[in-house]
Design a protein that fits this description.
The protein has ten helices and 13 strands. The protein is α/β, with parallel strands linked by helices and 348 residues long. It has two domains: 158 residues, NAD(P)-binding Rossmann-like Domain (Rossmann fold), CATH 3.40.50.720; 171 residues, Dihydrodipicolinate Reductase, domain 2 (2-Layer Sandwich). The chain has a seven-stranded mixed sheet. Its EC number is 1.2.1.38. It is found in: Cytoplasm. It comes from Thermus brockianus.
Length: 348
């Protein structure tokens, strides 16, 4: 049994981590922290979870755990990770602190990086691209929901060298904004649909471009710190009045001649051995992946215009965050990759 702990367990991603790790047969959850709820029972933040233990301090969790999940706001993990690694801990960081080169991170996040020397050690935590690197990793940069959906939607085209660029439209449930996100009060989101961070300003754009650029340069599998080719991507996110779920529509600019048959053969071959990616006959929908660690993908060749459209749906709190972190944990520990992770969704 490996001892695991969560720092930042009062956010939505932290709650999903708690739910998944409490049912994981290979780990012992030895502590969870929240500065807001420290000393209070878990039910104060999450009445759906049954655990008599209170929220501990960060120091207590750091001391007890062998593997740490950092479900903290951007900018906080980079100050904690050096100490944790020095103490012999292994870390899965759910923030953006180690996903990008430090100079790119600082330009898009506006936060000076406190431990840039560790970026070269961090493995990018998208198993479908970096599975072998994740085995035995000490530091994992866990990607988020939009990036996971967009990357997996376009990865087969990039890996074969056909992708030239893309326009991606993303729609997200309100939980994607976090528990204290601005503009997420019921009166503001109910009966309302709105774009945000349009015009190439969303901070996940360089991460999407880097992922696809790795595939263009290296094919599959790709190495986190290997060669990257330039690719430009337009991304516009939208907030949808639902609790959870991500749906992206990617319009790809590609080289070569295509047909629906060739496109489906490419995608089915690329994802044939992936335990959490399903290539559909029909179109994806968010409720089809609700509470699962699965991504549903559908490529479509639009014969009238010659364009390629790719649709992808996932649960932003599971495969888009906490479930992917547990998938990375399983790989780090040499456990079956699907341990404690649901492939099937629920239909409430």
């Amino acid at each position: 049994m490996v001892r695991v702990g969560i720092l930042g367990a009062s956010g939505y991603g932290g709650a999903e981590l708690l739910r998944l790790l409490k049912a994981h047969p290979g780990v012992e959850l030895v502590g969870f922290s929240s500065r807001k709820h420290e000393g209070r029972p878990l039910s104060a933040a999450w009445p759906q979870l049954w655990d008599e233990r209170p929220f501990a301090s960060q120091e207590e969790v750091l001391e007890r755990a062998d593997v740490l999940f950092l479900a903290l706001p951007n900018g906080l993990a980079m100050g904690m990770v050096p100490e944790a690694l020095k103490a012999g801990k292994r870390v899965i960081d759910l923030s953006g602190d180690y996903r990008l080169p430090p100079d790119v991170y600082e330009a898009w996040y506006g936060i000076p990086h406190q431990s840039p020397e560790l970026y070269r050690e961090a493995v990018y935590g998208l198993p479908e691209l970096h599975r072998e690197e994740l085995r035995g990793a000490r530091l994992v940069a866990n990607p988020g929901c939009y990036v996971t959906a967009a990357t997996l939607a376009l990865a087969p085209l990039a890996a074969m060298g056909a992708l030239r660029g893309a326009m991606v439209v993303g729609l997200s449930g309100v939980s994607g904004a976090g528990r204290e996100g601005e503009g997420t009060f019921f009166a503001e989101v109910n009966e309302n649909l709105k774009p945000y961070k349009a015009g190439g300003t969303h901070r996940h754009i360089p991460e999407m471009e880097r992922n696809l650029g790795r595939l263009l340069a290296q094919g599959k599998p790709a190495r986190t710190h290997g060669e990257v080719r330039e690719v430009r991507l337009s991304f516009t996110p939208h907030l949808v009045p639902m609790t959870r779920g991500i749906l992206v529509t990617a319009q790809a600019e590609v080289a070569g001649d295509w047909s629906q048959k060739a496109l489906e053969e490419l995608y089915r071959g690329f994802y044939a051995s992936e335990p959490f990616v399903r290539v559909l006959a029909g179109l994806p929908e968010t409720k089809g992946t609700y509470a699962s660690n699965r991504v549903d993908v559908k490529p479509v060749y639009e014969e009238r215009t010659g364009r390629i459209l790719v649709f992808a749906a996932l649960d932003n709190l599971v495969k888009g965050m906490a479930g992917q972190a547990v998938q990375n944990l399983n790989l780090m520990l040499g456990l079956p990759e699907d341990t404690a992770l649901p492939k099937e969704g629920v239909w409430p």
